[in-house]
Amino acid sequence: MSEHQTLVEARGVGKMYGSVKALDDVSVTVNAGEVTCVLGDNGAGKSTLIKILAGVHQHDFGHLLIGGEEVRLSSPRDALDRGIATVYQDLAVVPLMSVWRNFFLGSEPRKSIGPLKIIDSRGARDTARKALAELGINLRNVEQPVGTLSGGERQCVAIARAVHFGAKVLILDEPTAALGVKQAGIVLRQVAAARDRGLGVVLITHNPHHAYPVGDRFLLLKRGAALGNYEKADISLEELTRQMAGGAELEALEHELRGVEG
Q1: Tens of pLDDT along the chain (262 residues)?
Q2: b/e for 178-187, b at 16 or more Cβ within 10 A?
Q3: Strands 200-205 and 169-173
């Protein structure tokens, strides 16, 4: 997969919060047309890593490169201007607003009527409907409140919005965490669709069964450090699941308990 263009690369990045080292010497690569999965339990450092990639926090150690250029992101707007869009678990949608209003929230297209500029609602509706359809999301009515959509559909609207506004790198923070099997499948299809459009996708999850079908690279984090960094050809779902479950620790515990029983 070395032919894919590298969009973002973190080399040995670290982050301190006071005297606490939240992230320690972590490296990750995000290539165009690939999905990089970042896996780990709560407290593993996933949130800290994505906040550095998203411009929410600056790294204290290591190097962050975007398009081969070393940078220090000053804000989420800085990251967005460089083509990095982040979809957080809470989605930042307004439930009572329509789908199309949420799609364009803060970036509404406008048209002139005499000296006035008003929102081009018809154009916005058509654009939102088309952009969603291009990712295989066919909603009954883009006028319906976004709060009436399923969790999976809301995630898909947020993904389609990021793609439409020119994201090159799409960071998804636990997009399937609160979803059932069917809804998770809908979201994972959109992850694959974004990848197939040439975006570099970073999928944050604690579920290897969601990561493995769409993932090309896998970074496992534990207590702020990298437990492993693999390409898909180098690790099976079974081994990924074993490492996520703390396989070595469980084996040691089982051996210890057998000793106690003996």
Answers
A1: 446 899 999 999 999 988 888 999 999 999 999 999 999 888 888 999 999 999 999 999 999 999 999 999 999 999 999 999 999 877 667 889 899 999 988 777 788 787 888 888 888 999 999 888 887 788 778 999 988 888 888 888 888 888 888 899 999 999 888 788 888 898 899 899 899 999 999 999 989 999 999 999 999 999 889 988 999 999 999 999 988 876 555 555 566 677 665 5
A2: ebeeebbebb
A3: parallel
Which residue from 71, 67, 61, 26 is spatially nearest to 47, judged by alpha carbons? 26
CB atoms within 10 A of CB 161: 23
CA distance 163 to 135: 9
Q: pTM to 2 decimals?
A: 0.84
- Single out the residue of 55, 75, 56, 135 nearest to residue 103, CA to CA: 135
* C-alpha distances out from residue 196 to 33, 52, 158, Å: 6, 25, 17
Give the Cα separation of 85 and 165 in Å (integer): 9
Q: Please, what are the domains in the chain? A: 6-96+166-261 (3.40.50.300)
